[in-house]
Specification:
The structure is a single chain. The protein folds into two domains: 6-112, Electron Transport, Fmn-binding Protein, Chain A (Pnp Oxidase, Chain A); 120-228, Beta Barrel (Thrombin, subunit H), CATH 2.40.10.220. The strands form three sheets. An eight-stranded antiparallel β-sheet has the order 9-12-13-16-15-14-10-11. A six-stranded antiparallel barrel has the order 2-3-4-7-6-5. The protein has helices spanning 10-22, 212-231; strands at 6-8, 26-31, 37-45, 49-54, 68-75, 78-90, 100-104, 109-112, 120-121, 129-133, 139-140, 143-147, 151-155, 169-176, 179-191, 194-199, 203-204, 207-208. It is elongated, with a radius of gyration of 19 Å. The chain is mainly beta and 241 residues long. Helices cover 14% and strands 43% of the residues. It has two helices and 18 strands.
């Protein structure tokens, strides 16, 4: 995680989630199984649960009680993520109402820097590869450092820095196993050999509308992040103060 990420402990979680619900903050819910990625929004909370409306139809059997999912969100100038267990999935009473996903309150919420979506660090052994095609048609193969539904951060090897200027257009191809997605990108920032790239054809009129292949790739990346976080979770009584 970056230095400006903030871990919110249990004392402030209720207040933070209440703020999301009051503002109807948008979210992305990802399950640990192979079902998919779901757009959602915060709607209400109680003493021990938080409820989101799913804006996309859940697959049958998804969100079974006690299953774990992650929730990525953005509100104002903050973005973040938390893991939570499912309490219940409430079907709509009538069309066009949404399914209501009731989650147990998380024990920890991670909030990060200003972003429309939460950026996920990419494990280098996961096999996610990136190819960039510049304005002259040259192909470049940087290392993917982190990614979100709206952009990514890549790094070039020593001696292979293309020295892109801010505003440069690139075509990006992202591959993982048999999933492949091509996106139009724009260089938004540079720090030494690292470049922040915005997916300009996804962020249209302020709405995030990623292709299914990108959702699937991010799901694999987030699942690995969840696994690694679970392995390194501190023992009870030894968390951050």
């Amino acid at each position: 995680m970056e230095e400006n990420t903030l871990a919110i402990d249990s004392a402030d979680i209720s207040r933070t989630l209440w703020e999301f619900c009051v503002n109807g903050a948008p979210a992305v819910v990802i399950t640990l199984d192979e079902r998919g990625v779901y757009q959602a929004r915060f709607v209400s909370m109680s003493k021990d649960s938080v409820t989101l409306d799913l804006l996309t139809e859940p697959a049958e059997g998804t969100f079974s009680p006690d299953s774990v999912c992650s929730v990525s969100f953005h509100l104002g100038n903050r973005a973040g993520i938390f893991l939570a267990t499912v309490r219940e999935l409430v079907p709509p009473r009538a069309a066009p109402q949404a399914h209501s996903l009731v989650l147990n309150l998380p024990r920890l919420v991670i909030r990060g820097e200003t972003r429309r979506t939460f950026r996920l660090p990419v494990a280098q052994d996961l096999g996610v590869n990136v190819t960039l095609v510049d304005e002259r048609g040259g192909q470049l193969t940087p290392r993917l450092l982190d990614i979100s539904l709206g952009g990514m951060l890549v790094e070039f090897p020593i001696g292979q820095d293309p020295e892109f200027e801010s505003g440069t257009s690139v075509r990006a191809e992202i591959r993982h196993r048999n999933h492949n997605v091509r996106l139009q990108g724009e260089i938004r920032r540079r720090e030494r050999r690292q470049y922040g790239i915005l997916f300009v054809d996804i962020l249209q009129e302020g709405n995030i509308d990623p292709p299914e292949a990108l959702r699937t790739i991010l799901k694999a990346i987030e699942a690995r992040w969840q696994e690694e976080r679970a392995r390194t979770k501190p023992a009870p009584g030894r968390g951050r103060r």
